Amino acid sequence: MFSLFxxxxxxxxxxxxxxxxxxxxxxxxxxxxxxxxxxxxxxxxKIIRGIIFAYIYLIRGIPLLVLLFLTYYMLPLFGIDxxxxxxxxxxxxxxxxxxxxxxxxxxxxxxxxxxxxxxxxLGMEYWLYMRKVIVPQAxxxxxxxxxxxxxxxxxxxxxxxxxxxxDLTLAGKEMSEVTLKPxxxxxxxxxxxxxxxxxxxxxxxxxxKRLHYVH
Amino acid sequence: xxxxxxxxxxxxRNLPLFLKGLIVTIEISAVASVATLIWGLILLxxxxxxxxxxxxxxxxYIEFVRNVPVLIQMYIIYFGxxxxxxxxxxxVCGAMALTIQNGGYMAEIFRGxxxxxxTSQYESGFALGMRRFLVMRKxxxxxxxxxxxPSMISQFILLLKDSSLASSIAVVELTHIGKLLTERSxxxxxxxxxIAIIYIVVSSIMSxxxxxxxxxxxxxx
Lengths: 215, 221
Fold this sequence. Notes:
By secondary structure, chain A is an all-alpha fold. Chain A has helices at residues 2-40, 46-61, 64-74, 84-110, 113-121, 126-141, 143-156, 168-179, 182-211.
C-alpha cells in the first residue's frame, strides 16, 4: 500500500502545484476585485453602492459550480473560445472577490468615526482621506479574515476539475482510474489538501496574534 | 458585437425538467439539513466534553472537514467506499457528504451558542442540585439552540448551494439538469442563466425567512 502512495505521488504533486498556482492567481485577482468593490460599496453615491450590492447579492446567491458553468458557456459571447482555464479563473476570482468585498466593507465600517472626522477637520477631501487614512487601516484589520478566504480559495479550486482543468482533484481522479483503488487515492488527495489548508490556517492564527494591537 | 440571442422556447419547453431538478435539490438539502442538525448535536457533546477521549476525535474531525474540499469528501464516499464494500446510492452519498461537511460547521455554531450562555445559568442549575448533563439538557441547550437559529439557517442556505456539487456524483438535481440540457440542446447559457435565477430565488426566499425570524425575535425581546 505504501508503494501505491509513493508511485502516485509525482502525478498528484504536479496537480497540487497546479492547484496552488491557480489558487494564488484567483486569490490575487479576487483581492483586486474585492478591495475595489469593497471601497466602492461605501461611497456616498447610491448608484454605485447599488451596483456593488447587486453584484454581491447575485454572486453569493448562486453556487460556485453554477457560476463556473455559466462563465464557461458565456465566454464565446465575448469572443474568447471555450477556454476552461480562463472561465475557471474568472469565476473563482469573481466569487472570491464578493467575499473579500464584504470583509473590506465590514472593516471600513468598523473603523471609529473619529478617523473620518479628524481627516475632514484637517481639510482632506473624500478620496484623499480614503486613500491615506481609511483604506490602509481597513486593509490591516481585514488581513486575518483574508487568510481565511485564501483557505476557502484553495477549496474552491477543487471544483475546476469538473470542467477538466488540471488540478489536484483531477489528478486524483486520473490516478484512481489507473490504480483502481479510489479510496486510497482520494484519501491521499484529502491529506494533501489538509496539509495545505491547515498550514494556511495556522499562518492565519500567527498573523492574527502578531497584528493584534490594543485600540 | 456578439449576438445576445436568448432562446426562451427551450426554457419554456423544459420547465418540468427544471422543476424536477429543483425538487431533487430541495430533497437532498432537506435530508442533509435534518441529518446535520442531529449529527451536529452529537458532535457538540464530543466537542465540549472535558474528557480528552471525546475532545480530540471531535477536534480532528472538525479540522478535517474544514480543510478538505466538499468535493473530495463526496468523491471519497461515492468512489472510495464501494471499494471497501460499502455501496450506497448516489443520493445517499451526496446527502452523507453534505451532512459530514456541515455537521462540523454546525457543531462549531452550537459551541459558540453554548459558550455565549452566561455562567449564572449553570450556577443556578447546580444550586438546585442538578447534575451537569441535566443542566445542559434542561437549561443551557434550549437557550443556546434558540439563539443559534439565525446561524443555523445561514448554514442551511450554504448547504443548499453545496448540494450543486452532488451533480458530479450523478445526483439528478438542478445543476445536473443544467448539464443534461446543455448537452441536449444548443442553448448553453440560457439554461444556466435560468438555473442561476432559480438558485437566487430559492436562497432569497430562505434569506427573507431568516430576516423575518430575526425581526420577530428582536421585537419580542
